[in-house]
Design brief:
The complex is a heterodimer of chains A (399) and B (335). In chain A, 58% of the residues lie in helices and 15% in strands. Chain A has 399 residues and is an alpha+beta fold. Chain B is mostly helical and 335 residues long. The longest helix of chain B has 38 residues, at 188-225. Classes of the chains: A alpha+beta (399), B mainly alpha (335). At the A-B interface, α6, α7, α10 and α13 of A face α1, α7, α8, α9 and α13 of B.
Chain lengths: 399, 335
């Protein structure tokens, strides 16, 4: 009897504590709690985290330099080599790959023929020394001598895995013998960087323009709206093309990269600006803003302390949602040949290679970067949706 | 009624103003492309063996009126387009642009509009289900398929479908018409032939547009779903689709109608790449040809202007329709 009441009161105390936690939780904690309950969004989040870290640690993870310097001239257009643990010759704790040799002679009708020698195993080694990479390697060759930056520190040459003799190409190699695995990882990094830069630029523009329109209203709002609508009406492809026509062929890949990100940002802001404006317009007429104004708060104070916190969650969601569109624009641009070009490893420039009939029929492993692209976009969209649901105050009703 | 007329008039003035702004943007863009029409034409002559001097270029510029100031050229271009429907001659081909474009622009527009309609036919029901259904599996798989349209690059989808069709049916599905209809006048048979090929670009464009439409519909529906009037309606005993359709959906879909014009823009933007792969002979392909290959400013400007004009008109029509249906929009507009 006694013990039952204590247990009961314990439960009550626990429930009260939970309730207390719920009511005192910050907006971020509430959003995270709701987000965790969404299984598809959580899966997408994990996929996203894995892919982003693959992009960040690309130099460490890829055994070969993704540029022409790291080409494997012995293994051009080579098929993926998948490490194995056992075969008909027995089991091995250390994964291994087979040795392959290619030959072209009168016997093979003068075509390159690859033969795989299943007897000769090559074992995968971990933390091997390979090509050098620098974590901070900035060599900008921007137009104008003053802007040139050249910093190179934190140089390492350790890689996660490799083989002693010959090469290991998990995803195969391309027509010049570059490792597709390494290229894909670096491409994820490039595409994410272009997307981030583009989103940031469009975000700042959207915040200024949408914020001014929403906060001041009146004729400022009307004229900014007209400008926004006019920009939204012009199709982006010709805009890109006219701007890309500026891009001289002599520009280095880094300069091109920045230019493309800036263009993407300059074009992407109207949708976001419109949403920020709509949100500000509705928030502005809320009682708490009026109360703050009656207390004599300046407009700067109202914006910083009341309006911005009210829609940070919306902004995060919007940024998340606009990200895949940025990445997609980059690939589309690179595909028509106006974006990043082949020596730069971007998902767009890699996908450009896929469109040849030769590849479709003979070298299907060229498609592996496409799989990563699809996964990246899907992960972003699902995380964006999940965040949106979690940030929506009404969705807590369902729980 | 007087109020409504006033609203319509105001929107019309705003639409014309937007069109003028856009035409200025388009014209400026065309000017930004390096080289002028005169240089390009004479450069072509040069390849044919004629000797070209600076004087020749200047004479040609004078003949084309390119030596006038920027503003004057813009005004003359816009007034020619707006009042007489004349886009002038193409820089490279020296042909009247109206003649060159023919029905190509309308074909492109038809493809894009069909894709737009298809996208919303899918996105609206899926969005409503996904915002209110408790069935996580159905919800997630519907969303997955819709978003796949965004994630799969258009050109790849086109290539794969082409390849499959070539291998299994022996027809690559490229082009817009079969051989026998290519130069024929429009007839019912030609239209059917067109449809038998146009479904592919429509399908690809529509699928990728679905993702964006779905995200919009879903977000708007979620915003409305938890609101008190919906709870009140369900407390009165209305349930299922009737509840969703009559209460939250009606409010949620207003902004969707409002942004149809911009959606059309987004779809048209994807058209050139597909047109390149499927070798479609319509305005999208012509646009990319004019922009990327031959730098034909006049032709590109004409196509972009036609497109933007369509978007402005569409926005105007949807605004009026919305105002007819929703008195709040009317009041909001009039301030």
């Amino acid at each position: 009897m006694m013990s039952a009441t204590t247990a009961n009161s314990k439960d009550l105390a626990k429930a009260a504590k939970l309730k207390e936690e719920y009511f005192t939780a910050s907006q971020g904690q509430l959003i995270w709690a709701r987000f965790k309950g969404n299984r598809s969004a959580m899966i997408a989040l994990w996929a996203l985290i894995i892919m982003i870290s693959m992009g960040i640690f690309a130099p460490f993870l890829s055994p070969y330099d993704p540029t022409i310097a790291g080409r494997d001239s012995e293994y051009e257009n080579g098929a993926p080599q998948i490490p194995k643990f056992w075969d008909e010759n027995g089991f091995s704790v250390r994964p291994f790959i087979y040795t392959s040799t290619r030959e072209r002679s009168i016997q093979t009708n003068f075509r390159w023929v690859t033969t795989i020698d299943r007897e000769e195993r090559r074992y995968v080694e971990f933390f091997v020394e390979g090509w050098e990479y620098s974590l901070i390697d900035i060599a900008w060759d921007l137009p104008g001598d003053l802007l040139d930056v050249n910093v190179k520190t934190l140089t390492f040459d350790t890689h996660l895995f490799g083989v002693a003799k010959g090469g290991i190409h998990l995803f195969g190699t391309d027509s010049s013998g570059k490792d597709i695995f390494g290229r894909t990882l670096h491409a994820i990094w490039t595409s994410l960087a272009v997307g981030t830069l583009g989103v940031l630029i469009s975000f700042v523009l959207a915040l200024i323009i949408g914020g001014a329109a929403g906060y001041f209203g009146g004729w400022i709002d009307s004229s900014l709206q007209m400008l926004t609508d006019a920009i939204r009406t012009v199709p982006p492809i010709p805009l890109f093309m006219a701007l890309a026509a500026f891009m001289p062929d002599s520009w280095s890949s880094e300069t091109r990269f920045f230019f493309i990100s800036i263009i993407l940002g300059l074009i992407g802001w109207p949708t976001l600006a419109r949403r920020i404006r709509t949100h500000l317009l509705t928030e502005r007429s809320q009682e708490y803003v009026l109360a703050a104004e009656l207390c004599g708060a300046s407009s700067g104070h109202v914006i910083r302390k009341h309006l911005l916190p009210s829609f940070t969650s919306y902004i995060i969601v919007d940024l998340m949602i606009s990200f895949p569109y940025m990445v997609r624009s980059e690939t589309a641009l690179s595909f028509i040949g106006l974006g990043l070009k082949d020596p730069v490893n971007s998902l767009g420039s890699m996908m450009q290679n896929v469109s040849q009939a030769d590849v479709l029929l003979n070298y299907q492993w060229y498609f592996i970067p496409v799989v990563f692209f699809v996964a990246l976009v899907l992960a972003f969209v699902f995380v964006g949706d999940g965040l949106r649901d979690a940030a929506d105050p009404y969705s807590s009703v369902k729980k | 009624m007087g109020r409504f007329l006033q609203f319509t008039l105001m929107r019309a003035v705003m639409a014309i103003f937007t069109l003028l702004t856009v035409s200025l943007i388009v014209f400026t863009l065309m000017e930004l492309v390096p080289g002028s029409c005169a240089e390009r034409y004479l450069a072509f002559k040069n390849t044919q063996g004629a000797q070209i001097s600076i004087d020749d270029i200047q004479a040609e510029e004078r003949r084309l009126g390119l030596d006038r100031p920027f503003a004057v050229r813009w005004v003359s271009w816009v007034s020619n387009v707006m009042f007489r429907g004349e886009f002038g001659d193409s820089c490279i081909l020296r042909l009247d642009i109206n003649q060159l474009l023919g029905d190509k622009f309308w074909i492109s527009l038809m493809i894009c509009l069909a894709a737009l309609i298809a996208a919303y036919l899918i996105a609206i029901p899926v969005g409503i289900i996904s915002a209110s259904s408790k069935n996580a599996f159905a919800n997630n798989s519907l969303r997955f398929v819709s978003y796949l349209g965004l994630a799969l690059p258009n050109f790849l989808l086109a290539l794969i479908i082409m390849l499959i069709s070539t291998v299994f049916f022996g027809d690559s599905l490229t082009g817009l018409f079969s051989k026998e209809y290519r130069d024929a006048a429009w007839s019912m048979a030609k239209f059917w032939d067109f449809l038998s090929r146009a479904w592919l670009p429509i399908f690809i464009l529509g699928w990728s547009a679905t993702a964006f439409a779905l995200q919009t519909v879903r977000a708007l529906m979620l915003d409305e779903n938890g609101k008190l009037y919906v709870t009140a309606a369900s407390a009165r005993g209305i349930g299922g689709w009737t509840l969703l359709w009559r209460y939250p959906a009606r409010h949620a879909l207003g902004p969707v109608i409002n942004s149809l014009g911009f959606d059309l823009n987004r779809i048209f933007n994807e058209l050139p790449i597909i047109a390149l792969i499927l070798t479609l002979t319509e305005a999208g392909a012509l646009l990319i040809e004019a922009l990327a290959r031959s730098n034909d400013q006049q032709l590109a400007g004409a196509i972009i202007f036609l497109l933007t004009a369509t978007i402005v008109v569409l926005n105007f029509v949807t605004d009026i329709l919305l105002a007819l249906m929703d008195p709040r929009v009317r009041r909001g507009m009039m301030g």
